[in-house]
Amino acid sequence: MNKNLIFRYILIVSFSGLSTSIFAQQRGEVQDQEFVIRKDRVLTVPVQPRNFERIPVLPSPKSTANFNYMVKPFFLELPPLEIAPEASSKQFPRNNEELFPGFARVGYGNYSSPILELRYNLWEDGDYNIGAKLKHEGFYTGPIGGKNSAETHTNVGLDGTLFKDYFSLYGQVDYSRDLYNFYGYDPGNIILQDYVTSQNIFNTFKIKGGISNIEKMSDLNYDANLNVRLFADSYMAVENEVGINGKVDFWYNENLRTGIDAKLSLTTPSDELYSDINRNYFKIKPFVEYRKQGLSVSAGANIVFENDITMNKKSDFHVFPAIKGSYMLDEGFGIYAGFEGDVIRKTYYDFVMENQFLGPSNELLNTVQNFVASAGVKGTVNGEFTYEAGVNVGKYANMHFFNTSPTDSLRFNLEYDSDTRVINYTASVGWEYQDWYKLTGSVNYYQYTLNDLNAAFHRPEWELSLGNTFKPTEKFLINANINSMGGIVAYRSTTDKTEVLPVIFDLNLKFDYKINNQVSIFAVGNNLLNQTNQRYLNYPVRGIQGIGGLTVKF
């Protein structure tokens, strides 16, 4: 058996060598090759388990719109295109009304009242906008003594904006000259037949510059500006102000945002009774706001520093809450409420713009709003009629009032009340019917509770305003407005008594007719019922007053 096995093994090796040499002669020479055959070798492959799990389905992306695509196969063997991107040069159509950078208006009316208004803008080329304006309006005669009650207003200014990729720089320079006469005397007095009123001219110079982001729908929005105001009148009132205003807000998502509003005001007023005063005011208001599905809630604080000197003042530093919210129960009805305290900045310029017949002031004070609580309802009916009604209850310190001077009946003095309670009932409506009629109206009723004064001098007990806009054709526009107020209490120094002034009722109309896209004519009528309205004691306003003119775009 051993010999047979040996013999077989020799034969296998011989034939293997022979076959290897044959293949080597075909492909190349191979030498010294050895093969080992093992019959007991067993090759095993590990068992791989089958995966019966299905691939999970990924969630479909959500979107606010549906997109349908129609795909058509094209079997064309074309070489790839070389794309060279460049800015689009498509000329989008413009409205013809936007092509006129210039605007001019001229007119004339009774009471020797010319009006001239010019405006021109450079905006066609570049990334900037520059504008210039000029306006003069005069009433060279008035309701009392002709020229003795004259009044003129002149304003010139420049403004501009430079647009960059993500922000804009803006600025403005403005000058105003306003002339008033102290005409609150009795023209029927024989002694005053040749009386010549004294004039007061207000000169105001303003300059402003700031920066703001361009995309207002971005997550981060900001606006900051520096402004300077110089004011002087014909007497001894002078007030200069340097102010810095800034605000920034950040949207975390479409429902939640936070922000900060800040204001700095530094004024140096002087008058006959005071000088070398520095009135400083700084306010910062951080807040958080949440909006979602008809719900709007805002919570913040008014943090104020001011250095006015008053009796029983505890601190120059104030912190007040500022909370407000509203909720629309449905599209037609909602409720709102709020609670806020603040220090309202008041300068001499603010007072004299409210009452131009102000005499020398003893002191200037800000109004401290200890709180104002408000609540009401609002909504929309049929998508056309809007309404709002509510009540505000407030507590104030140093609220200002205008009272007749006991030594000069032509002028008014500033008076303050240390503790004032005010209840204000308010309502407003709006209605727009198609494209040819629009109605707006509001009414307010006030109740004052005072601590130091006998009455809320020269503040109305109620106010009413009603506006109507008609557009019967594309070329014709009509405005009819009513403004009324009543319950104004004044003190007459000659009788040492208070009295209620007659109700003020002013009906005014305005007509505009467009001849073409560049030329239109207008007519304005004020106090058409010829009422002797007195907003301030001894100062009746002009009677029926009309003016007509021409407007040109170029």
From TrEMBL:
Domain of life (superkingdom): Bacteria
Keywords: Cell outer membrane, Membrane, Receptor, Signal
Main localization of the protein described in the UniProt heading: membrane
This protein's record includes keyword Signal: yes
Compartments where located: Cell outer membrane
Cross-referenced Gene3D superfamilies: TonB-dependent receptor, beta-barrel domain
UniProt signal peptide: 1-24
Protein name: TonB-dependent receptor
Species the sequence originates in: Belliella marina
